[in-house]
Amino acid sequence: MNFIPISYMREFRRLGTLTAPLVVTQISQMGMTVVDVVITGRYGYVDQAGVGLGTSLFWPIMLLLTGTLMAVTPTVAQLNGARRIAETGFVVRQALWLALLLAIVIVIALNNVEPLYRFIGVDEVAIPISVSYLQAVSFGVPALLFYFVLKNLCEGMGMTVPSMIILISALTIKIPLTYALVFGIGEFAGLGGVGCGIATAIIMWFQLLCVVIAISITRIRHSGVFTRLDSPNFGVIGKLTKLGFPIGLTIFVEVSFFSFAGLMIGKLGAQATASHQIAMSIGGLGFMIPLALGMASTIRVGTNVGAARFHVVRRTVGVASVVALMIAVLVALILLALRHQIVTLYSEDPVVLALAAQLLLLCALFQVFDASQVVSVGVLRGFKDTTVPMVLATISYWALGMPVGFLLAFGIGNFNGIGVIGFWYGLVFGLFIAAILQFVRLRWVTKNASKFAPSTTTSRIQKGTLEIVKSLS
Q1: In sequence order, which residues have a C-beta less than 8 Å from that of residue 424 and are 6 or more positions away?
Q2: Cβ 427 vs Cβ 276: under 8 Å
Q3: How does pLDDT run across 118-174, given as a tens digit for each residue?
Q4: Distance CA 207, CA 195 (A)
Q5: Which positions ≥6 away from 448 have C-beta within 8 Å?
Q6: How many other CB atoms are found less than 10 A from the CB of residue 351?
Q7: Alpha-carbon span 399 to 351, nearest angstrom
């Protein structure tokens, strides 16, 4: 007997159809970092720690600013829906100017990080490797930002397959390229952790080349993005920034919480840093499916809120939440059962392996809370409810989780602290609070779903998009 209503099975299939390609894309993106962690771990824990510190600083900055560039997607989508495809090229060319400005800021920042590391008190042995790694990566930053703009053009035009294919191809090339640059090949001796930075920069330019080709041979070429070169229009650039910055800030609040923890753990020594990076890398892979499910939920909920089909919205919320928790529990059980075997893929240092295996115990609990909050946030974005979730995330991570982790790791008064494990208690606590607060917010929003329908209210993002569209009229 089938105890699951047909409507819920249908919703499960629709969510699955949306989630599957997103999972592939997210895992491929995550795989870029995993490759660096695994290969440098085989080279030595000092290089692994240096690269880990570099990525902990690099990605929060990148996600804050590339999130700003996500304004391209809704703007292009509206113009495409209005059959004004030719105008999308102008918007994207202005976004490319914005990307260039942001790239200059990032490149300058990445080439001047050493004083920050010394101010924080990061382990001295990891600093030179991390500094050189970031300097190498900085050569690829302009290409990466241009790639994000053009990728968002593709997605705004309803084409998501190109980015998936590009990332799979990039990951396939990055593995042997990184290994060769780290360990050497033939008479080339290898560069250690710095080789990861060079390989990453090369892959960034490869991704840009691929997306340019994809646009040139598909219907997206009708946008005319490459037909001319416009001078900067600071009015449009300002509106794109105003529209996109809150998106980037929301992402930054979440990612910087984990990255700042990595920087603080850097004060505990290279072995503690390496074990933390291993646990975060493994946990991140397990998180990819709930993350993709949250992104798919945004699409489903947004579509049905726009159509005022609130009974379908509630069905989506139920299916997404249950599936995310089931996946999280399964991943947690795998981590508990195989943690000692899994960590051996990342390092050969016995101290790092033992500590990383301990952290995976907390990582298992981490999965359940993280899956819950990411699906809640994904659904709320479908309602275009982004400001309150951002505030709740800030409270959970920075006002509660970070202080708890810092005190448990480094101690206070007569309490000496328990090291990296203490910081992980703080991470788990922050996610636990986030899961509760975001779920409470989700319950309120779903009970008042009609208030979020486009006919009764318009989100700040939508208003910003309409302003940009009107400015092009």
Answers
A1: 276, 279, 359, 362, 363, 366, 405
A2: no
A3: 787 766 777 888 888 898 999 999 999 999 899 878 876 767 778 888 989 999 999
A4: 18
A5: none
A6: 14
A7: 32
DSSP 148-204: HHHHHHHHHTT--HHHHHHHHHHHHHHHHHHHHHHH-BTTB---THHHHHHHHHHHH
Question: Taking the model in full, what pTM does it have?
Answer: 0.71
Contacts 24+ apart (CB under 8 A), 323-327: 323/12, 323/15, 323/293, 324/289, 324/290, 324/293, 324/294, 324/371, 324/372, 324/374, 324/375, 325/368, 325/371, 325/372, 327/289, 327/290, 327/293, 327/371
> Which helix (H) or strand (E) is 73 found in, with range?
helix 72-81
Q: Could you tell me where the DSSP H helices lie in 383-459?
A: 387-394, 402-410, 420-447
Residue 90, C-beta contacts closer than 8 angstroms, at least 6 positions apart = 230, 236, 472
Cα separation, 283 vs 49, whole angstroms: 17
Nearest to 33 by CA among 284, 335, 343, 251: 284
Q: Maximum Cα–Cα distance for the chain, whole Å?
A: 68
Cβ 270 vs Cβ 49: under 8 Å: yes
For residue 412, list its beta bridge partners: 415
Taking the C-alpha atoms of residue 383 and residue 444, their distance in angstroms, rounded to an integer, is: 12
Beta bridge pairs of residue 188: 185
- b/e burial code for range 420-437 (CB count within 10 A of at least 16 → b): bbbbbbbbbbbbbbbbbb
Question: Do residues 281 and 51 touch, judged by C-beta distance below 8 A?
Answer: no
**Radius of gyration of the chain from Cα atoms?**
22
Residue with tokens 């990612």: 255
In whole angstroms, give the CA distance from residue 303 to residue 390: 22
pLDDT band at 288 (very low <50, low <70, confident <90, very high): confident
Q: Counting Cβ atoms within 10 Å, is residue 232 exposed (0-12), middle (13-18) or buried (19+)?
A: middle
